[in-house]
Amino acid sequence: MSIHTQPARYRVSVIGGDFSWVWRCRDGDPECRVVTREDRGEMKEREFEVGVEPGPPPAATEPDEPCELGTVRIIAPDRGAQYSYGPSNLGVLQGLMAKAEIDGEDCGHELEWSIEDIGSVQATQEVVHPAVAFTFTGLPEQNEDFGEKRITVRLGDRSDSLSVQVCFHPRAYNNPGEPGIPNWFFYWEQTVAGRGYELEYRAELRSTLGSGTSVGAQYDFAADQVFMAQAAFTGRCAERPPELGGGASEGIDCFAELARHETQHKRERHEWWGSMNPQAEERAARSAPGNEGVRPADPPHSGTRGLRIIRAKELRARHLSTYGDPPTPREGPSRSLLRLPPGG
What we know:
There is one protein chain. Mean pLDDT is 75; it is low at 1-5, 14-24, 34-41, 43-47 and 291-344. By secondary structure, the protein is α+β, with helices and mostly antiparallel strands. The termini are far apart. The chain has helices at residues 183-188, 231-234, 252-273, 278-287, 312-323, and strands at residues 2-4, 8-12, 18-24, 33-39, 46-50, 71-76, 82-84, 92-103, 112-115, 124-128, 131-137, 147-155, 158-167, 199-201, 205-206, 214-215, 217-220, 225-228. A hairpin with an 8-residue loop joins strand 3 (18-24) and strand 4. The strands form six sheets. It has a four-stranded antiparallel beta sheet, with no helix packed on it. A four-stranded mixed beta sheet has the order 7-13-12-9, with no helix packed on it. It is built from five helices and 18 strands. It is elongated and about 110 Å long.
C-alpha cells in the first residue's frame, strides 16, 4: 500500500472484488491520497487509521531572468511626407501607412499607434504587426486643421514619433461647405488671401468689356458683390509691367490678387456713391437746383478702374510666406497644403 496523506480517520468505499480503494482526505489537499489494490471479495465500508508517508519534494525551478525591453523606431513613412484626401464625395484620406522596427526584445508588449486628429476628424486604424494603416473619413471645417500631424508608436515605456503633412484635394468638391463649392475656394477664402473680403463663387464668369472671355473674378456693380470663378484657380493673373518685376501670379497668389483688385472696385463704388443706387444718385444730382443737365464728376481712379498693382516681391512677402503655398505651383493635391500660423 502506498500512502500520501495526513494522519486521520477516513472512510473507504469498496466496489467489486478486484478493486481500488480511493481515499478522500478531509482537508481537501490534492496531494492527500491513498490508492491500493487488493482482491478481498466483498467488503463493506470501513474506517481506517493511517499514517504519513512523505511524498517527493517539489522540483526546484530556476527564477526567470528579467527581460530587457528593446527600443522602437518608426522606419516609414519619411518625415514630412505629404498625404492628400482623395476627390471622392466621401472625402477619404487613406494610404497613410506607418511601420516600426524593434531593436531587442518586446517583453510581451504590443505596439500601440496613434496619429493626431484633423480638426474634429479622427483616424481609424488597421494594424498588421509591425505596421498600421490610418484612414480619415470627412474633411475638417477649417483650413488651419490641415498641415503637420504627428504619428507616435509606443512599446511599453519606449516610443518614437515623426510628423507628416496632410492636405485637401483642390479640385474636389468634398468640403463641408455648400454643395458645388470647390475645395480651393472654400479653404483659400479662410486664409489671409481671402479673409476680410466678401466673396462668392460662380463656376464661370465672362468679361463685361465686350470680349466675352472667361475671367477669374468680377465685381458685379448692380449686385454689389465680388464673384470668383474657376478660372481664378486654373488660370493666371494679368502680367505685371517689367518695371514692377514682370511675371504673373497663379494659384493662391492670383486668388489673393483678384480678391484685392475686385474688392477695390467695390470700395471705390461705396466711397463715391455711398449706400444709394448709383443710377438714382446720378438722377438726384442732375435734378438738384442749379445742376440740371450737369453730370457728376467721374469716381476716383476711374482711369485705372481701381487697380492697385501689387509688386511681386510685396505679394510674396505678405501672402506666400504666410499661408505656405509652394513658391512654384506643383501638379497634384500637395499644392493645396495651406496652413496659417497662430493668429495668421
